[in-house]
Amino acid sequence: MLTNLSIQNYALINQLSIDFTNGLSIITGETGAGKSILLGALGLVMGNRADLSSLKDAASKCIVEAQFAIESYKLEDFFKEQDLDYEATTIIRREILPSGKSRAFINDTPVTLSALNALKDKLLNIHSQHQTMQLSDVGFQFSVIDALAKNSAKIASYKRGLKKYNSLQKELKILLDNQEQATQQYEYNLHLFNELEEAKLKEGEQEELEETLEKLNNVEDIKLNLSEALQATISEEVGIQTLLNGVVNNLHKISSFSKEYEELYTRLQSVKIEVDDVVNELEDANESVDFDPIALESANDRLQLIYNLQKKHQVDSVSALLAVYEDLSTKVGAVENASEIITNKQKEIDDVASKLDEVAQMISKARKKVIPSLKKELEFLLAELGMPNARFSIELESSKTYASNGKDELLFLFSANKGGNFGELKKVASGGELSRIMLSIKKVLSEHTQLPTIIFDEIDTGVSGEVSNKIAHIMEQMSNYMQVITITHLPQIASKGKSHFKVFKEEVKGVTTSNLKQLTTEERIVEIAEMLSGKNVSESALIHAKELLN
User: How confident is the model at residue 8 (pLDDT cuts 50, 70, 90)?
Assistant: First the structure.
């Protein structure tokens, strides 16, 4: 509930801080005294658009701060989702700077206006006559029925299922679109895939073929140079191997004479081993080199195939061709396996839909169960409020469409006059009638769900006499379940309040200022007497005021 409202430099208010209690609080005051300013300040702190014209002193900033006791509202998850510190006593602050910039804070954490508006719906409901048009909104009508049917948990479960259902439907659509596109390209992709599969490409194959081709095309030069190199190595007279053998023998004979000779011998021995290995490899290479026209043709053909495939697919390596092959394999496989994949996806959708239908049926059943009692209670309350012939026709029909709150269609019709035709609320009910219908609905809701603080802004306009007593009684009953604040001009309603505040204007140093104060018992008697008889309070008005308060 709202426990404190502090206003600084807003409209006609210099500085104001007022504490509110639970139950029914009354705000009265003369027309133009500033009751609408209070509502404007509350709207501002809860996220309404800021305006520089709101500043009383254009050189100073405007600050509006509201304090709420929220322990019973179960908002821990909301604060966690918004990344805010949860406090049982939550303070919301809004500042408008002279520059026109606006800042908002929840428990001293800066927040966006969207976060503020989201929290507003959970803490405060400012209700005026023009807001009664909400009655014609089907979503609101469903929310009333669902509150009585205690459908919140079932609807939350339904929404989770609906989110999954919609997600699966999107996945199915993508599969079907992909299948359609893939089918159109299937024959061509299959041809390309088969062509690459027949090629049986291997990583590094191109480099090996190019090297082999280079050897085969230069076989004569290779043979000549290998032969000459081999001859220079193994010639019996001047060959490197022959000469090296002689040097090794010479050093071997003197190696035992000193460490120096032994070391030289050891090093030359290593060189000899390496040269012997080279000679063996030269001999092998020389013997293996031979002109092979068949191998040449085969290498040429294979390499040309690779070049042709690279040109066709606009790539420059076998690795890239293998990547193309994998991609084509996926595309071809997607078409060939699409039917099975789509069938499985459809089965998954059907399973979710079946569970959704079960929950929707439970929601619908609970709605149908409470509609007769809702209809009866609303008609009873409206009869109490001076509308004895008011009748409702509330019909629930099953739908094949998955809506956000179930699979029902709702027809919420009203007739104000005996024998009159039923019609949509906005078409057949007057403004005063809509106000009384909304009050009745709020009364019913207050007994079945945890409602936020509700502020009635002169919802009693246009009524008097016994009806005003009934409105006062209903508000008093509502205040047993929630905090109710009402701005009123009727003494019958003002007398029912647990606490009573008066908005008034005063002139300070030639400047008009609005203020608010909580009235004592004696001040309440005078205020209600003035509401009964005007500024010139009569003795009978004072007596009547005391009777109303008692």
Answer: very high
423-436: average pLDDT: 84
The token pair at 533 is 């008889």
State the maximum Cα–Cα separation within the chain, in Å, rounded to a whole number.
152
- C-alpha span between 183 and 185 (Å, rounded): 5
Which residues, in sequence order, are CB contacts of 117 under 8 Å at separation 6+? Answer: 46, 47
Neighbours of 422 (CB within 10 A): 14
Write the CATH number of the domain with boundaries 2-150+385-519: 3.40.50.300
Chain centroid to CA 232: 83
Quote the strand ranges of 2-88, DSSP E.
Answer: 2-10, 13-19, 24-29, 62-69
pLDDT class of 433 with cuts at 50, 70, 90: confident
Q: How many beta carbons lie within 10 A of that of residue 290, not counting itself?
A: 10
Beta strand pairing status for 2-10 and 89-96?
unpaired
The Cα 124–Cα 451 span in angstroms is 9
Give the count of alpha carbons within 13 A of 280, CB side only. Answer: 6
Cβ-contact 338, 175 below 8 angstroms: yes
DSSP letters of 112-163?
Answer: -HHHHHHHHHHHEEEEEGGGGGGGG-HHHHHHHHHHHHT-HHHHHHHHHHHH
CB atoms within 10 A of CB 120: 20
Which of the pair, 364 or 124, is modelled with greater confidence? 364
CA–CA gap between residue 344 and residue 108 (Å, rounded) = 51
- The whole-angstrom separation of Cα 506 and Cα 324 is 84
Please report, for the chain, the start and end positions of each structural domain, with discontinuous segments joined by +: 2-150+385-519, 174-337
**Spatial separation of the C-alpha atoms in residues 213 and 216, rounded to whole Å:** 5
pLDDT, tens digit (0-9, with 9 covering 90-100), for 538-549 = 899 999 999 988
- DSSP label of 22: S
Please name the helix (run of DSSP H) or strand (run of DSSP E) that holds residue 239, with its range, or none. Answer: none
Residue 325 has pLDDT above 70, yes or no: yes
Question: pLDDT of 41-60, one tens digit each?
Answer: 998 898 888 877 778 888 88
Q: What is the three-class DSSP state of 502?
A: strand
Contact indicator for 419, 390 with CB cutoff of 8 Å: no
**pTM greater than the 0.85 cutoff:** no
